[in-house]
Design brief:
single chain, mainly alpha, Growth Hormone, Chain: A, 17 helices, 80% helix, disordered N terminus
Length: 402
Amino acid sequence: MLFTSRLSNGLSRNALILITSNFFLEMGRTLPHSILTLFLLSQGNSLTDIAFVKIIQKIAEIISILPIGIISDVFSRKKLYILSIILLFVSYLCFCFFSHNLLILSISYALYGFSMPLRYDTLESDVIFEYKTKNLSVKYYVTTMMYTLSIAGIIGGAIGGFLYSNIGGYIYIVSLVLLILSLICSMFFYPPERNDSKQYDVNKIKLSDISNVFRDLFSSRTYVWMIFSICILTLFIQSFFHYWQILYKEINIDTKYFGLIYVSFHICNVIGTLICKHVNINKILVGLVLILLPFFYSFIYIDQKLLLCVFPLIVTLFYIYHQHMNIVRKELAFLHNTSTYFAIINILETIIGMINLLVMTKSVEHFGVINSYMGMLVLFSILSWFCYSMFRRYLGKAYKNQ
């Protein structure tokens, strides 16, 4: 853990059930991701159309994040998590049969956007609360969850590329089956909330207390710089997840390899998580990682095919830093108002992510995808180093306030 070392490792029953449910959910969600951009283009959508529906998704997330976080802290987290699976199910059903229709595609992305905070700001907050009150290792839970999600992504990406080449858009039917398995896990195996449980009552908040969460977050320089650092991550995330297929197509990589490439990125995630789990991440190591990102990418200007070697390395380095900040975010979570804490951070992250997506889209149109990635990496490294340095500077004060 970031602050203390004498914590018990292990998975609680609730954590194990949530991890299992998320395994099926993530596999179903990522199954079509390795070919998503190409699939949408094949349905007659332009890059502008794709960016437009992605923005709708982000707007839906922004609108729903804070209300869902508040409702989750007050009412049933389990029911909201189940609702997230149902919304994703309906979204993917529309993807399968109506992706050629921009209006229905927009509605599908909106439903997808609403489902995301329902997934991440509900039952996981319940597990984080359990771990913090029982003095269990949050880092152990987070890294285990990330391993599981990465493995699910690896399997989904590997199968997805193969299935798409054989059944095309009907790949979403397979995703729907996996979502049903996730629904069964969460609905029938995760324990129901107990209204007479003291722990559950403590974990509730009053709506009048929401302002206290804002005050506690933004009155602390540690939390402010942590939020800045997390938001800057979207510079890389938005560019990587939405444009890597365009980048690889730019250097004439056959699309039949995209499934394997997508799997390799998830392997990078596993490696990055493994390093983050076993290595003490300090300011010097973060600085080295951030410097190496644009350095390795610059090799593409020597020979574009070198991207096949250096891009997975870049993704691995990014995930070391990304998982470190993910652990920090959860270790510094408030003991009470946990879902609201995550919701406020996520809404700011989503707003910045939407802006970054717009900027990256325009940059790709005017300067090309190769140059846009280079500019993004340089900007990301500089801003991340500054904000993370400030965060570490005030970290001791946050520890004393825990």
